[in-house]
Specification:
The protein is an alpha/beta fold. It has helices spanning about 10-30, 45-60, 80-100, 115-125, 140-150, 200-205, 215-225, 250-260, 280-290, 305-310, 315-330, 350-360, 390-410; strands at about 5, 35-40, 60-65, 70-75, 105-110, 130-135, 160-165, 170, 185-190, 190, 210, 230-235, 265-270, 295, 335-340, 365-370, 420-425, 445-450, 455-460, 465-475, 480-485. Helix 8 links the parallel strand 12 and strand 13 (about 265-270). Bound molecules: S-adenosyl-L-homocysteine, iron/sulfur cluster and FE3-S4 cluster.
């Protein structure tokens, strides 16, 4: 295994490309170019999107949300399920249409889809409009790749730039980041995955597990807190194996405790914790760290041991439930969320019923539910899958109904209580408070509790980005409504 740490001097080279691109882009467009950056998929991919924005900002780009306005459209894609990919091909079609109408536009596609050979072949063959394609391993090289693209995209010199080479992955520190969210931030602590769950494409596109050094993570966390960020989510595909590569001198519970011990008023979350490597030590840290949110995302995928084995998850239903029991005993008021796959190849109705009973037994606050989607190159894609799609949809709806019943319990009895929320921004007009008059001088705001419950409330717009006490007046449809309490 070879994990490459990108040297500072290489990052210096990339900065030099930024300066050079700034000049070339100004020349090409006659003004600072407008860039559209869209990221799909998981929190790590969103964070990569912020890094792409950071690098483009250094090249003098301004940003737009509209493809009609964009000189550069860059799509940071996700390959986790087939529908995620189809969506991107649809969007690429629209961007191509724009490009035909306006000469000089550049289209780039990066992220997990780009790392799949099937996709890059399809782009080469059917999307000549796409100028630049690069996988997650080449992210730090965007300045250099865009430089090549700009040279090749000159009239008469058309050639497309591809960097999708297979790799175990790299760690590149010091990529500039332009965060879109000033209140909440994802903080990657590791990249890649070694688990090879049989359904999952991530290890194939994101390379092997590799951990950032604790001093880099802590420095970034300090910077975020100083910038006023109030919620930090430590990110990794399997945070519980942080440090397993032996270089960090810290395991995940120790790192979590170190981040949660930094001075300042903030919350810490983490994602994703694989049940296989979840330890009591981690739960003990949650129990004794007031800044770590009492909301634990522990994806179970299935409640049946045969299915879990076929998925290569390396834990049993009993082991999972044992960890949940320990967490419930150790951390009063802890809530759980999870991911579940319905209709894994060969799953029977009886096996699926085990998932339903596990969902009831744990009592999740919320669930992310997915129907199995075969991914090229994964083991599960080659397994017999006799259950018809219609039947899987029926099971899926059954699961949603069970979850609705279990999840609603958390909202019963909330009316009249005062809860602490982190105010993230303005609330939706069509939400739980729609039709009610906004008090003079106040705004409709939105926040989340430590447990992850969404609350719409009336309060001073100055609350945005702050912790606020909210008196709950209504609790329905998985949302809270209320008013900020002064003083
Ligand atoms: N690393 C995380 C999950 C990342 S992917 C973990 O191990 O928990 C997020 C979720 O997508 C997974 O938990 C799984 O529920 C779902 N998922 C992944 N591959 C899938 C596939 N091929 N079909 C359907 N759902 C899938
Ligand atoms: Fe995919 Fe499993 Fe790795 Fe999560 S732990 S990213 S589901 S292979
Ligand atoms: Fe998707 Fe890649 Fe994340 S496949 S879920 S964007 S790691």
């Amino acid at each position: 295994m070879s994990i490459k740490r990108i040297e500072a001097v290489e990052m210096e080279v990339q900065r030099a490309f930024c300066a050079e691109n700034k000049r070339l882009l100004l020349e090409r467009y006659g003004r600072p170019p407008k860039a559209l950056v869209r990221a799909f998929g998981c929190a790590q991919n969103m964070d990569d999107g912020d890094k792409i924005r950071g690098m483009l900002a250094q090249m003098g780009c301004q940003f737009t949300d509209s493809v009609e306005e964009a000189d550069i459209a860059l799509y940071n894609t996700c390959a986790i399920r087939e529908n995620a990919e189809q969506k991107v091909f649809g969007i690429l079609g629209q961007a191509t249409h724009q490009k035909e109408a306006r000469r000089g536009m550049l289209i780039a596609l990066c992220g997990c889809m780009a790392q799949q050979k099937e996709v890059s072949d399809r782009l080469k063959k059917s999307f000549p409009s796409v100028d630049l394609v690069f996988g997650p391993h080449a992210l730090y090289k965007l300045p250099q790749l865009l430089h090549e693209t700009l040279l090749h995209a000159a009239p008469g010199a058309r050639r497309r730039v591809y960097d999708t080479e297979d790799s175990d992955g790299v760690i590149a520190e010091g990529i500039p980041t332009l965060r879109t969210d000033k209140v909440r931030a994802g903080l990657p602590i590791m990249y890649g995955c070694n688990n090879f769950c049989t359904y999952c494409v991530v290890p194939l596109v994101r390379g092997r597990e590799r951990s950032r050094m604790p001093e880099d993570i802590l420095a970034e966390a300090r910077g975020l807190i100083a910038a006023g960020v109030k919620e930090i989510t430590l990110l990794g595909q399997n945070v519980n194996s942080y440090g397993r590569d032996g270089e960090t001198g810290m395991d995940f519970p120790e790192l979590l405790e170190a981040v949660a011990s930094l001075p300042g008023d903030f919350w810490v979350r983490f994602m994703t914790s694989h049940p296989r490597d979840c330890t009591r030590k981690l739960i003990d840290v949650i129990a004794r760290s007031p800044k770590v949110c009492r909301c634990f995302h522990l994806p179970v995928q299935s409640g049946n041991d045969r299915v879990l084995r076929a998925m290569n998850r390396h834990y049993t239903r009993a082991q999972y439930l044992d960890m949940i029991r320990y967490a419930k005993e150790t951390v009063p008021g802890i809530r759980f969320t999870s991911d579940i796959i319905v209709g894994f190849p060969g799953e029977t109705r009886e096996e699926f019923a085990d998932t339903l009973s596990l969902v009831r037994e744990v009592g999740y606050q919320s669930l992310f539910t997915f129907i199995f989607s075969p991914r090229p190159g994964t083991k599960a894609a080659g397994m017999d899958d006799p259950v018809p799609a219609k039947e899987k949809s029926r099971w899926f709806n059954e699961l949603l109904a069970v979850q609705k019943e279990c999840g609603m319990r958390f909202f019963d009895g909330m009316e009249g209580k005062t809860v602490k929320v982190l105010c993230e921004g303005y609330g939706k007009e069509k939400g739980i408070l729609s039709g009610e008059k906004i008090p003079d001088g106040q705004a409709l705001l939105m926040g989340r509790t430590e447990e992850g419950m969404v609350a719409d409330f009336f309060g001073d717009a100055a609350c945005i980005g702050q912790f606020v006490q909210v008196k709950v007046t209504k609790a329905q449809n998985f949302a809270l409504a209320g008013a900020a309490v002064c003083g």
